[in-house]
Amino acid sequence: MYFKQFYLACLAHASYLIGDGGEAAVVDPQRDVDQYVDEAARNGLAIRYIIETHLHADFVSGHRELAARTGAKIVMGAKANAAFPHTPVADGDVLRLGSVELRALETPGHTPESICWLVMQDGRPARLLTGDTLFIGDVGRPDLAGSRGLTPQQMASMMYDSVHQKLLMLPDDVEVWPAHGAGSACGRNISRETSSTVGAQRRTNYALQPMSRDDFVKMMTTDLAPPPPYFARDAEINRRGARSLAEISASPLPIDAVREEINRGAVVLDVRAPAVFGAGHIAGAVNIGLGGQFASWCGTLLPAEAPLVVCADTDARAGEAVMRLARVGMETAIGYVTSSEGLPGAALPQIDVTELRAQRLAVLDVRRHAEYADGHVPAARSIPLDELSRRVSEVGSDRLAPLAIICGSGYRSSIAASLLMREGFSNLRNVSGGTSAWVRAGFGVE
């Protein structure tokens, strides 16, 4: 049996290619599908099935494009109500690839249509593709099906049954291969490991420990962060099927056209590294660098329908940005620039942690609540980046007062600073190296 995981760090997304006897299945494909076609061809495999474990909310799938290019059947849970040609499956249905059997296990809880796929080899269960039902260290959040009339409590109760009546009934040596890793908003405590076993998860996963249904439901529905705003949109795109990625592109724009687009309300998205952005950028630009979880933050922080002008170091980097935006369903890039010459400019001073300590500046920490609680620069205030836009008034009424913005590394803090500059804050500093550098320097935390 051929088996390969494809891991996309930007979206903490794992997809799979499984093959035997010259036939293959792709499970939970990302939107850009060339890698699956190329990998299958290199290994003498014809892609027969494209399997979706559920309607993904955190990225747009390439299932329709991959089907068009290969002639493969798209396979989904019957409860997905997908609006394109597909093969609906239910509990116990089987797909065959040579001597390998893929057996469907209905496991609602994250979504109503969630399906885990048990890979049977030589008549024994070998691997379990869990989608967003079971992660390494966690299970899928139960609050993403509200638009379909189900409460988080109802979904969590379904998840309890899926875990105890399906997944924990499997042998301990069955390998677990989920659709997401650490950093995904589809869970709360996902490990950095990208695979495990049923036995290891039985021992170490907090959500699989013995407890009553009521205790499980309460645990899974308490203190849930709001889902990112693009999740509902992406799930609906996946239900309908996305258009081909080849149809989405952006061209270089002359400076006069950029000025006109900005005047009409376009947002300049500067995808360069924080230090480069800080040295000089188009006034009013939002800095979300390609070096971090770019697509997730764009989907979370940028208006869904706003026209975007991408500012990048090179044509290639601009093209990469447009493709990565499309991975989360953002297709409004109208063009790009690789120079800001001739446009109003601004800068964001960068300071290191030694300067921060010496200058005794007011500090805003934009990491997540749990990160802040684990230790922060003394007296730093906490407003997580994903909450900043609705909590700007808490930053302070004096928008000329000096303020240092800090995160874990300098990436999220540069995003936050660029958003605050758009709100009129004009005396900001970005802390390069972030809290990690502060700790490495031996400075104390609270």
What this model shows, in words?
The protein is an alpha/beta fold and 446 residues long. 28% of the residues lie in helices and 23% in strands. The chain has 15 helices and 25 strands. The protein has helices at 34-42, 63-70, 152-165, 198-204, 213-221, 231-240, 255-263, 274-279, 294-301, 315-326, 353-359, 369-373, 385-388, 411-422, 434-440, and strands at residues 2-8, 13-20, 23-27, 46-51, 73-77, 87-89, 94-97, 100-106, 115-121, 124-131, 134-135, 138-139, 175-178, 196-197, 267-270, 281-282, 286-287, 308-311, 333-337, 345-346, 350-351, 363-365, 381-382, 403-406, 428-431. The protein has a six-stranded mixed β-sheet, covered by helices on one side. It has a six-stranded mixed β-sheet with strand order 7-8-9-10-13-14. Strand 24 (403-406), helix 14 (411-422) and strand 25 form a beta-alpha-beta unit.
Number of strands: 25
The biggest beta sheet is recorded as: 6 strands, mixed
CATH architecture of the largest domain: 4-Layer Sandwich
The portion of residues assigned to helices is 25-40%
The CATH homologous superfamily name of the largest domain equals: Ribonuclease Z/Hydroxyacylglutathione hydrolase-like
Q: How many structural domains are formed by the residues?
A: 3
**Overall form:** globular
> What's the CATH first level of the largest domain?
Alpha Beta
Quaternary: single chain
Distance between the termini: 52 Å
Discrete helix count: 15
What secondary-structure arrangement, pairings included, does this model have?
Layout: E1 2-8, E2 13-20, E3 23-27, H1 34-42, E4 46-51, H2 63-70, E5 73-77, E6 87-89, E7 94-97, E8 100-106, E9 115-121, E10 124-131, E11 134-135, E12 138-139, H3 152-165, E13 175-178, E14 196-197, H4 198-204, H5 213-221, H6 231-240, H7 255-263, E15 267-270, H8 274-279, E16 281-282, E17 286-287, H9 294-301, E18 308-311, H10 315-326, E19 333-337, E20 345-346, E21 350-351, H11 353-359, E22 363-365, H12 369-373, E23 381-382, H13 385-388, E24 403-406, H14 411-422, E25 428-431, H15 434-440
Parallel strand pairs: 3-4, 4-5, 5-6, 10-13, 15-17, 15-18, 18-19, 21-25, 22-23, 22-24, 24-25
Antiparallel strand pairs: 1-2, 2-3, 7-8, 8-9, 9-10, 11-12, 13-14, 16-20
Helix pairs in contact: 3-5, 9-10
